[in-house]
Design goal:
There is one protein chain. The protein is mainly alpha-helical. It folds into 2 domains: 1-121, no CATH class; 123-238, no CATH class. Helix content is 70%, strand content 0%. The protein has helices spanning 5-20, 32-49, 54-64, 69-78, 85-96, 100-112, 125-142, 149-159, 166-181, 191-207, 214-237. Helix 7 runs antiparallel to helix 8, helix 7 (125-142) packs parallel to helix 9 and helix 10 packs antiparallel against helix 11. It is elongated.
Length: 238
């Protein structure tokens, strides 16, 4: 049975109070709401282990995540960056479930306080955030789809100063460029947008020459040149 609004409010208030008493680098261990939420997380992990399909895991995570909202809201409201496995895990779960806005909201808090991922994760927090968003966008683009450009922009903004392999940052630039160009002829894309795509592609290739963006850059540069020629011709005729 789902919690009543009163119980959810109480959980949010208690989580906020507990988070406010712990400073950065201090663990949340021992705090009542944290311990209860970790127990819930452990139970949900056991459910997830019973599913082999990544898609199936993502669907279950999407169903499970709203139950954690009171805790998350409380921590984000008053937290000071204490070590919190619940928050870092839910950041990734949200992205796995396609809830990128919610995942990046948590990422902003985690990165702002320099929180580290649990030991089982090999990637740094900034690297994980950039790569999860970039991979999701690139996968959508491979099948002719698009991705929310605002999510890509926010992911880049949040991770600009984060250390990560050049290949990962290149993926994010490539995903942004392809999202701008879409599946259409680049010549149909407004000039200012094509210019932004060219900048992203040049940055991606400079970081990682084998990122897969060479043909994209060639198409974008041709479109950029034709648009510049057309603009110059129009000006001279005018």
């Amino acid at each position: 049975m789902a919690d009543s609004p009163a119980k959810r409010h109480l959980r949010r208030v208690l989580a906020a109070q507990e988070a406010a008493t712990r400073h950065a680098d201090q663990p949340m261990d021992g705090a009542g709401q944290f311990e209860l939420t970790m127990m819930q997380l452990h139970q949900d992990r056991l459910r997830l282990k019973q599913i082999q399909s990544n898609e199936g895991k993502a669907q279950l995570k999407a169903q499970l995540l709203p139950a954690y909202d009171p805790y998350v809201e409380g921590v984000l409201a008053e937290g000071k960056g204490a070590t919190d496995e619940v928050i870092t895990t839910l950041m990734l779960w949200n992205m796995d479930a396609g809830r990128y806005a919610e995942g990046l909201q948590l990422a902003e808090y985690v990165l702002a306080h320099g929180m580290k991922m649990p030991d089982r994760f090999q990637r740094t927090t900034g690297c994980l955030v950039a790569e999860e968003v970039a991979e999701a966008a690139l996968n959508a683009q491979k099948v002719g789809g698009t991705f929310d450009g605002a999510i890509l922009e926010r992911a880049q903004l949040l991770t600009t100063d984060q250390d990560m392999p050049d290949e990962v940052r290149a993926k994010l630039h490539l995903a942004q460029a392809r999202n701008i160009l879409g599946v259409n002829d680049p010549e149909q894309v407004p000039g200012e947008a094509v210019n932004r795509a060219v900048e992203h592609l040049q940055a991606a290739l400079q970081l990682h020459g084998s990122c897969g963006g060479k043909k994209d850059l060639e198409r974008a540069l041709r479109a950029q040149k034709k648009q510049a020629t057309a603009a110059a011709t129009g000006d001279s005729n005018g």
